[in-house]
Amino acid sequence: MKAKAKIFGSRSLKNFVEAARKKGKKIVFTNGCFDILHAGHVSILEFSRSLGDVLVVGLNSDASVKRLKGPARPVNKQADRALVLAALESVGAVSVFEEDTPYNLIKLIQPDVLVKGGDYKLTEIVGREFAKKVVRFKLLKGRSTTNIIKKVSK
Length: 154
Prior knowledge:
- This protein has about 150 residues and is α/β, with parallel strands linked by helices.
- It has one domain (about 5-154): 3-Layer(aba) Sandwich (Rossmann fold), CATH 3.40.50.
- The protein is built from six helices and five strands.
- The protein is globular, with a radius of gyration of 15 Å.
């Protein structure tokens, strides 16, 4: 499947997830900005995929990244970030969300498993009430987009 075919709006994502569930597939969800893809991102995506059959990735829109990370971000535009994520073997679907959190997207698809980085306390994980199971992933030390930007800005 071509990467572009794995990028969905919310309505088509709901249909995609419902079709996968009818086939008995377990749906896993994670989200993030994924501004400059790095080993930490690949690790959480592969881990997330290992917990089910279809990994859905919620991607912060450009406006959302700017609000969360500051005026110099994102480095890469949402269409490019979505395409790079969709090209990864571990990713089954990508959907961009405009809000600061993926609450509405999680509510829409009600994943079997919701994965978030270990830097979040369980009570801080948005949308946890819509998932059958919540899993926290231990982040790889020193791997972050912010660190990459600092390094190349020297």
